[in-house]
Amino acid sequence: MEDAVTLINVNKAYKGFALKDISFSVKKGFITGFIGPNGAGKTTTIKLMLQLLQSDSGKIELFGNNDATHMEETKQRIGFVYSDHLLYEHLTVEKMKRVIGTFYPKWDDEVFAYYMKRLNLPWKRKIGDLSKGMGMKLSIAIALSHHAELIVLDEPTSGLDPISRREILDLLAEVIQDEEKAVFFSTHITSDLEQIADYITFINNGEIVFHENKETIMEQHTIVRGAKELLDDDIRTLFLQVRETSVGFEGLTNQAELVRRLMGEHVVMEQASLEDIMVYTVGKV
Ligand SMILES: Nc1ncnc2c1ncn2[C@@H]1O[C@H](COP(=O)(O)OP(=O)(O)OP(=O)(O)O)[C@@H](O)[C@H]1O
């Protein structure tokens, strides 16, 4: 499957923060979730991907091309969705559509009308009067109506009720079905990714911890609980991180088989959630 965007050893330094050697690619036909704690570098990475920000070094290829001369054309192929940026607050949705439609040569009125109906969006309401959920849905509808092939969303489900969240997740899952589009979205709601992501990119402190198929990540990581006496220096090496209480311990391992063989009868093991993996890896336990 074609890569929508590929980052190769991308670096970007601010005073007091740096993105270090970021490399990963986002494939068409898949949903890639982007997670990491506050300040890890998600928005900065997204801005670099969209060429809204210039990297210090490294390469960013959009649709297999890093030729800046075609940038305007390339940008047409990208839909950037984030919650607080809807323009034209004073216009109705209908008028905004007329303005926006002229920006995009590939704008498709029929597709827009389809999503307006499907997402129950009001044509006559002013953009500034839309609820947060409606604004997010409208922003996604716009991306889909200019036939964007790379849809990048910055926290699309944050602050939305469970029904709107589900609607948006269902929509994203549907969008990738034709295998012509890639969806990349950052979120703090890891359960959303457990539901729909194919790949997970995890960033911490400006570095990519992993970029991996979700099933592989989930299979590799197991939470283990047991009595404290079981922990010795050798056993500790089996864990990525261990948290101890007065009576017992809880640890995250990526060597579940070995743990099971060595102490299977004495511990309780369960599949780690993405949240467990994130919290343990960041080490704030
Ligand atoms: N223009 C800038 N100048 C200096 N520092 C910046 C600038 N933009 C971002 N930063 C810093 O870079 C770091 C990463 O910020 P970024 O917004 O990419 O994180 P994030 O992972 O998106 O965080 P959050 O989950 O809180 O949205 C932060 O420490 C931030 O303060």
Quick summary:
The chain is α/β, with parallel strands linked by helices and 285 residues long. Helices cover 34% and strands 29% of the residues.
Walk me through this protein's architecture.
This protein has 285 residues and is α/β, with parallel strands linked by helices. The chain has two domains: 3-214, Rossmann fold; 221-282, Alpha-Beta Plaits (2-Layer Sandwich), CATH 3.30.70. It has helices spanning 42-49, 71-76, 93-103, 109-118, 132-145, 162-175, 190-196, 214-220, 233-236, 256-263, 274-282; strands at 3-14, 17-27, 31-35, 57-62, 78-82, 150-154, 182-186, 199-204, 207-213, 222-227, 239-244, 248-253, 268-271. The protein has a six-stranded mixed β-sheet with strand order 5-6-7-3-8-9, sandwiched between helices. Strands 11-12-10-13 form a four-stranded antiparallel β-sheet. β1 (3-14) and β2 (17-27) form a beta hairpin. The protein starts with a strand and ends with a helix. The mean pLDDT is 91. Adenosine-5'-triphosphate binds at residues 14-15, 17, 36, 38-44. Adenosine-5'-triphosphate (ATP) binds at residues 14-15, 17, 36, 38-44. InterPro entries: AAA+_ATPase (IPR003593), ABC_transporter-like_ATP-bd (IPR003439), ABC_Transporter_VariousFunc (IPR051782), P-loop_NTPase (IPR027417). This is ABC transporter ATP-binding protein. Keywords: ATP-binding, Nucleotide-binding, Transport.
